[in-house]
Structure prediction request, 524 residues.
Amino acid sequence: MSVSTNLARSTVRQLIELGVQDVVLSPGSRNAPLSLAFYYAEKKGLIRLHIRIDERSAAFFAIGIAKATGKYVPVVCTSGTAVANYYPAVLEAHHSDINLLLLTADRPAHLRKTGSNQTTLQSHIFGEFARHSVDSAAAIDISHLLSGSGPVHINLQFDEPLLPQDSLDWLEGLHVNPPIVGTKTARELELKSTKNLIIVGHDRAGFTVEDIEKFADKVAAPIIAEDPLSFKNAVAHAPVIFSSEASRETLIPETLFTFGRTTLSRTVNAFIKEAPNVIVVDPRAEHIDSARSSNQVLHQIPKVSTKVARNENWFELWKKFESFAMEAVSNFKEWGEPSALAQIAKEIATDTALFISSSRPIRDIESFAIPRSGITTYANRGLAGIDGNISTAMGIASCHDETIAIIGDLAFFHDIGALVNKTSDPLTIIVIDNNGGGIFSTLPQRNIEGFERVFGTPHDQEIEKIVSGFGISNETVTSLSELHIAMQRIHPGLHVIVAKMPDRESNADSIAKIFSRYKELVVL
Prediction:
């Protein structure tokens, strides 16, 4: 048996015994020992092997699976620039604490800096963004590397011969024993305030909806959620409520708990800064966001010694301002991004997975959707990039019976190469097509000279024709009624709905009108 074959088989066998079930592979020559070992494992029914020809797409596809399963998902590539294509996904996995395992094939160390083809310095290439980095030409013990969370990098040096020279059944006698990840003891918290509030970031800092709702009940606090589609009792339209300075001043709590990162709305973040006592609850503050500051930073949901008595006047005050926001939003009935995103959120069937891309779609959901439950939501909020969104949605779809993805047109084009490996899993992608960077029309640079060239960046493409070129079914909608009909259809595999929006300036004006109407209602 060659050294490279032995290294690959040892690695694959250990990963299966550590509970790995999905592997994402990109083709190459130097990673042939791993590719063949994983192929053999799939043939024996031990793993699911996913092939993605583009390494960037492959890594985001793996992130989607890791989000949906919570397990480590290896991505396997050859040497050279293939490794560097993992970098955007590594950054996302680092900041989101996602279990991504990078298995990069390399040439032997003695060939580095010699001018050898496709050879660069891959060892520790991801720096501090990988929890562990190992560079080895021999079999190693992997178990301790996967005992935590976040991205891990194993750079494996494969020397020739790269192909196996035997037919041994090296996967006999497997004993699957996934590592146990321990949890830290929660701190005791004595809380005397009765005007409490909880603001939950989109990924909930890794906590469950049930755990946060139980804590909210314990401290008698209303919940504001950047993801209103997971908390059916959350306060609706929080960014609209906080758009008014008068509202923010009136609703300041005595104690404000924030779960995870609250990164979406500037008005929400402005409100947080005005609170006199802010308690952050986020495990990432221990090793990722270690410079985060507030009155207190906790890594686990605290234990409250005595249940706080419910302050009915406090809850009624929130209901009052929520009713103003609901009236302002409900008055907007014309076709546009606010109404379309609100309708999508309302009509998604129960037990569906939903992926929401960064930029405007995720903000529109937070601002205009009515809180509900019954769906599982996902988003790449680690660095909020628009790269890899289609791939992430495909990875998620591979783990769910039905998945919907809402993706802006620029994010769609950014990852359009993912359509080469179109999925057979039920996935409907709704593309919000406003012909460019719609979010910038809602930001301060809207009217600056040169805006359309450097911010608006119109693509002037017919997305339907491009999608058809990949052999993917699609349709176009231009009204709420057409969107409603399109969402009722069931498709066995990948399907794209192109939601053609009004021009970006009109959409920005519509959003501004909603906020303006809210402020009028507050004054009245």
